[in-house]
Amino acid sequence: MLLAVASLFALPWFAATLVRGAIERDSARDRAAYEAGSSPWRWHLRDNGDVVAERVFGGGRLERAPHGLQVRATDGSALEIGFPLPRQADLRALTTLRLEASASAAGHYGLTVRQTLQAPVVRADLGELAPEALSRSIRLDRLRWTDAAGHPVTTPSRTAMLRLVVTLPPGQTLTLREASLAP
């Protein structure tokens, strides 16, 4: 009985200590990345394990490439590549998505975001981009965001899901080398 009562008091304290420690470690890692001129939200794309679910969503497939992760369009429909987010990212502070990529052909590009994993998807259209225009910085706070019905919405303030949406002709490729969220 005494052990049960002691557990009632000790377990919440122990859980709070663990959570506080995890938050402090994440914060220290984030600060160190920013101080080094980097971002804690940086993805070096080399193999399937570097993207969400280790696969492409929609009409494409992943292939290894010498200098990045290659996505081959299989049928010309839209495909999505998810960037892993271990926790929500604050898009009020991280207003820029930096991409290092190349493609074998021009394509149509966009972004999809969910502010929480249960929230509705919001989209931003990046338009038609030439293969040489893919390595770029994209100001997220300057994009026109819409809901699933195409109605304008405010710029997302955070993201729990971030995907690059690409439509390329069948057989054409996109090679992703790196992506990051930055201030």
Fraction in helix: 10-25%
The beta-strand count equals: 14
Q: Assess the beta-strand content as a share of residues.
A: 35-45%
Structural class based on helices, strands and sheet pairing: alpha+beta
How would you characterize the overall build of this protein?
By secondary structure, the protein is an alpha+beta fold. It contains 1 helix and 14 strands. It has one helix at 2-35; strands at 42-44, 57-58, 60-65, 68-73, 79-83, 89-90, 96-103, 107-114, 122-129, 136-139, 145-146, 158-159, 161-167, 173-182. Strands 1, 3, 4, 7, 10 and 14 form a 6-stranded antiparallel beta sheet that branches. A 6-stranded antiparallel beta sheet has the order 2-5-13-8-9-11, with no helix packed on it. Strands 6-12 form a two-stranded antiparallel sheet. The longest helix has 34 residues, at 2-35. The chain starts with a helix and ends with a strand.
Précis, in short:
The protein is of the alpha+beta class. It is built from one helix and 14 strands.
Offer a few descriptive terms.
183 residues; alpha+beta; 6-stranded antiparallel β-sheet; 1 helix; elongated
Write the layout of secondary structure elements.
Elements: H1 2-35, E1 42-44, E2 57-58, E3 60-65, E4 68-73, E5 79-83, E6 89-90, E7 96-103, E8 107-114, E9 122-129, E10 136-139, E11 145-146, E12 158-159, E13 161-167, E14 173-182
